[in-house]
Input
Amino acid sequence: MVGAAPKLRADSCADRTQSGARSGALRIALVAALVPLSFTLVQCGKASNPAALAANSQANVQIVAKTNPQVASSDTFEDRFPAPQFKERFPSASESLLQRQMSDFSPKRAVQQQPQPEQAPYKVASLAPQVPYQRPAREDLTTLVSMKSSAFPYYGNNPASDAPFLNISKGDRRGHRSYSGRVYWQDETYSDSRVLMHVPEHFDVRKPGVIVVFFHGNGATLERDVRDRQLVPRQVTDSGANAILLAPQMAVDAADSSAGKFWQAGGLKRFMEESATHLARLTGDPNNARAFANMPIVIVGYSGGFLPTAWSLEVGGISDRVRGVVLLDAVYGEMDKFASWIESHRSGFFVSSYTRYTARRDRELMSTLRQKGISVSEDMDGPLRPGSVVFVETGDGITHRDYVTRAWTRDPLKDVLVKMSATPSLALTRVASTNPAASSR
Output
């Protein structure tokens, strides 16, 4: 019993010695951990050191490279977070903050970004800085306007017979018996006073211009045929000429070429005077009426439109303003009126294109003109010049129904306006002279 106690104390001392050693090691480890933490706490509120960030990022790259080389090679820290430059965070007084776009933060752009050259002096911001500002073009203006001076309704005489045009009645209805014997009633065929007006988007009333008056053929309406099938407004626009279009409704969807009010003396003059007012209102400035009232005129007659064309030249009252006549398979008669206008208006031009249906009369008109000493051309290859008289025969593959869109070329009206605009000496886009001597040269 006496010897056992010292052994126990010795074991206790040994235990305390080992416990003290472990406690010392624990304190050393705790101090080792707290010292870096204290430095970190001291650094709180201070900006990170770029060099340290770069070192840490490099260490992270090495760790990622060991665990996943593929990720490390294609998605590094530098790729996603480029090292900040001092001037980006603290610009000098002479510098301004760089303007960043979302694309600047893509991985590849961030790595490849090069220093930007010094910016040019201040410029006005623009959505398209490389393209000068242009006012958006307005749209074409196409509308139907009712006019008192349009062809119908008409209560006068038929000059061919000097008898009333409305030569048949049934109760309260009045109508016209045509040469074929068919009866057309006034309320169905001869009561539409509307005129198709078309102003291209590029038209400028301040510049020299021309008014195209289009007389459609038989069996037509302004919307279904002149606008949509024959594409007359589109041809005027596509020509690029400073031209506008007037197309009065003739007999509605009927096999009749009656000229209505264009049979009367001064009929075309009254029509153009009233049109000037409507065109000025359509273009938004009543003061434009004077310009429209002086613009030269080109008359286009298709098929049955030959009759109002011929009478407008003969008795319309403003034949000196008519600087061009275009007949599209339309010489069915009235050759004397066409020959007279051509002979007395040598500063204008005359074009007649024809199929086999009108070939005999076109050749008769050519012969008459040559007998008068007037030079006649038989192709449209050359330019239009003052006094040009052109007859063009088209082949068997060209149909009368499609003649307004396909004659000697596609869109023949467009072709005439293009040739007209390309010939300054023709003076068709300048205000026509009111001096009869000048117009007869």
